[in-house]
């Protein structure tokens, strides 16, 4: 008898969407007892832990920090009016986060940014922003995870460790599942990992190629050289024997359908977006011989949805500045860390994110000197510096909404249980702020 079979429950809700990572697994089953979640089936250990431990450190009431520096509970009207007052008085507001909320809430945030002339940015600015820049420069030979499952016979992971970070990626989408053209699952596929470290993904791979840290760019250019008929003069490239690179090129050229996934191991090393530039060019070169595609491994469940929604609404993916009354985008100028390092923002609101965990200390120091607002579900390091806390709800658990999987597929995330009594969805909170700003601006 499994653990879930031992749990007492009186209701089953099937085909739910997990709101943990960019996999957005949509086959989750919740077990309910008295309208509370008591068990989860099909979720990975990380997703299940997040769902089951949802009540731990949960924010349940709006709070405002008093003169003694202590957060005190207050009413929604008082908290929202105070946020509106601070926002309307701000000259350079900045809205950050959005990776763990719905597209519907993001669109409300865009309206608020337009009304107040704010900068709107998300976690891409410190993670896969380099990938997005590369896609803009070179192109994106994209694929869906469904294509990978049904067609791919060679799977390559570079600079990412999905066994730890996206636990169901291999079992549900890429390596282990039976596909239309890969009916034997794992036996029909070759798994290759390129990484300086011997990760858990490397351990289960058919081939692990270890290369030197910060030499990604040299490695990929060497692979392109071989692919295009050139000869390598050095015996080792980026710490890899050239014979091993010739073997790798031979495998990639002879794949029936190849899929390549890459992570922050590329975007955060020395060459940053240039690593992704040359990787895209490698995929384009491979398509002269056979079918290859690539995808970045996105972290939060809707961080990709933010980029898609922003591009749809404004033409730009992140770091969008509305200060002049129209959207502007310039990496290094309108992106969060750069703005904070220049001490520009005089108002900061994080929605479904914890900047204190994600930002460098110099940037966090500025946050302690300006009004900061938290819109989130749980207490965290950011709560310790927040002036006003607005407790929200979990998308895909307590609130319905739309999320975009890492491959750009939109998924409806349905409501499973009722929210805590005094919490509201991000969409509702942002709508309330929009209505209050409209009154101040004299708009009907």
Please summarize what this structure is.
By secondary structure, the protein is of the alpha/beta class. The protein has 18 helices and 21 strands. It has a 9-stranded mixed beta sheet, with helices on one face. A 5-stranded parallel beta sheet has the order 10-9-8-13-14. It has a 3-stranded antiparallel beta sheet with strand order 1-2-3.
Task: Describe this entry's structure for a reader.
This protein is α/β, with parallel strands linked by helices and 444 residues long. It is 36% helix and 20% strand. It contains 18 helices and 21 strands. It has helices at residues 3-6, 45-52, 76-89, 103-116, 129-138, 145-151, 162-165, 169-174, 200-203, 216-227, 242-253, 264-267, 273-286, 303-314, 336-341, 355-358, 361-367, 426-441, and strands spanning 11-16, 28-33, 36-41, 63-65, 71-73, 93-97, 119-122, 154-158, 190-194, 207-209, 236-237, 240-241, 257-262, 291-296, 320-321, 328-329, 347-351, 372-376, 388-391, 401-404, 410-413. It has a 9-stranded mixed sheet with strand order 5-4-19-18-17-6-7-15-16, covered by helices on one side. It has a 5-stranded parallel sheet with strand order 10-9-8-13-14. Helix 10 (216-227) crosses helix 11 (242-253) and helix 10 runs parallel beside helix 13. The longest helix has 16 residues, at 426-441. It is globular and about 70 Å long.
Strand order of the largest sheet: 5-4-19-18-17-6-7-15-16
Tell me the fraction of residues in β-strands, as a range: 15-25%
Task: Compute the average pLDDT.
Answer: 95
> N- to C-terminal separation?
61 Å
**Structural class, from helix and strand content?**
alpha/beta
**Radius of gyration from the CA trace?**
23 Å
Helix percent reads 25-40%
